[in-house]
Amino acid sequence: MLPGWGRNGRAVQVPRILGTRTAWTTVGDGEFFCPGCGGDRNYQRLTGRRRFTLLGVPVVPRGETGPVVECAACRHHYGADVLDHPTTTRFSAMLRDAVHTVALAVLAAGGTCARTSLETAATTVRSAGFDDCTEDQLGALVEALAADTGRVLGGPCGASLAIELHEALDPLAPHLAPTGREAILLQGARIALADGPYTPAERDALATVGAALTICADDVTRLLAAARTPS
């Protein structure tokens, strides 16, 4: 509607002669992280057909539009790429699994699984969300990992372990701020340092962690050095 003026000087609404209207069709639904609401919400995935309107009546097709994602709460529309961002629940699970995988990799690289390293690793993993994780469970998993892969404990980070690290960290890294990525690396570094200085195998494993988290080699070196300095 367009504004106009009546004889009494008051604004009146004049019908819009030409316009466009979109008819939306739902093609899917689910849960996503809504950037407008700032949390997990239900959504509908929509495609639309546009038409020219004459005096508000659809008359001529103008083609398709979308797809778009409509938040069920705020009703805002977003591009389909918004679904690439994990939900809060999914993100927490990804972070928990990543920390667990890093802890196992560093313990396997350390070789001896000293009690101090196991305690540090278990505390780290529990803080990430595995509330019932124990030192004995981690020790058993490290031994099982070595038996399954034929890897010698304390040896360099092998191909199978590197693949596991990348599988856990690659999907997570794009959704973490630089400080978040550095925090995961530093957690691994503290596990390695719990029983003494880094071994070459531990440095190799931590370098693989840094690469999977897209931290450049110079920053990995800096962070590993910083972890040795008591705070």
From TrEMBL:
InterPro entries linked: DjlA_N, TerB-like
Recorded superkingdom: Bacteria
Limits of the Co-chaperone DjlA N-terminal domain: 98-222
Pfam families: TerB
UniProt protein name: TerB family tellurite resistance protein
Organism annotation: Streptomyces siamensis
